[in-house]
Amino acid sequence: MIKNPIPWPNGARCAVAFTWDVDADSAVHAARPDSADNHVATLSFMRYDPEIAVPRIIDLFRRYNIPLTFFVPGWTIENYPAAVDLMLKNSHEIAHHGYLHHDNNAMSRQQEMEVLWQGIEIITRVSGRRPLGYRTPMISSNGVSRHTIDLLIEQGFLYDTSLYGDDIPYVLHNDKGSVIEIPCIQGLGDWYHYMSWCDFGYSAAIKSPTHAADVFKAEFDAAWEYKGMWMCVWHPSVSGRLARCTAIEPLIKYMIEKGDVWFASMSEIALHVREVISSGTWRPRIDQVPYYASPAPDAAAKER
Ligand SMILES: [Zn+2]
């Protein structure tokens, strides 16, 4: 079903990346700029991220020697240095996730650019290396503006992982250059399975971890069958809770037992994709961006 599979290292059938968006309470401050300090329960829910879940997750994956990728807003890095130290000490990747979890669609190009610089500067300062990858903070509600990809290309990012346009990595290209897109799959986001919190406008029914793990496993089996990749978009404050975190270990074991899997960080995957492209071993699908210079004329007329 995948017409042009990527040749993964060592003949692996499938690349697997466990990625975590560590928002902490940055998202509360962004959503409630005038009253975040008064939303104590929501703050506590999100502070579970660095205080409880990040150490737990790092312990779990250390047992299997699997690299992780953490997308962390600059504000969170500044406010929770111990969690960030733990990520770095365990050689996990830290990638860009905005500054205060702002919505790119609500910002001007200049504001987006300033936030991008802020995150680059903070990650470079704490980790000693410039971030190679980016994921929009508002991953479950668009959050990618007409400027976002252009700015990532301008700033020389290696990869983005905010879009949904393919099953495997592809290339976003414009007149300034290109960036590798590692696309998301809705079913592999934990938000859709577990999130119910009225303060953020989510009140879905919560699934059992077994049900969610069935979806994660089905996506893995399909990726393995068709030589694709599997990348989850999980949040420590959501998937790092006891029962959900417990359900991750059988999934890891299942992947290992199935075999021919390349467990990698996102930058390792993007660097490999760049290498097979530049060596001529593999030709990517290329999306020209932006898709449109303006809204479709009919739609714009109706809106007026
Ligand atoms: Zn986020």
Automatic annotation (TrEMBL):
Gene3D superfamilies: Glycoside hydrolase/deacetylase (3.20.20.370). Pfam families: Polysacc_deac_1 (PF01522). Residues 39-264 form the NodB homology domain. It comes from the Bacteria. PANTHER family: POLYSACCHARIDE DEACETYLASE FAMILY PROTEIN (AFU_ORTHOLOGUE AFUA_6G05030). Belongs to the polysaccharide deacetylase family. This is Chitooligosaccharide deacetylase. It comes from Bradyrhizobium canariense. The lineage of its organism: Bacteria, Pseudomonadati, Pseudomonadota, Alphaproteobacteria, Hyphomicrobiales.
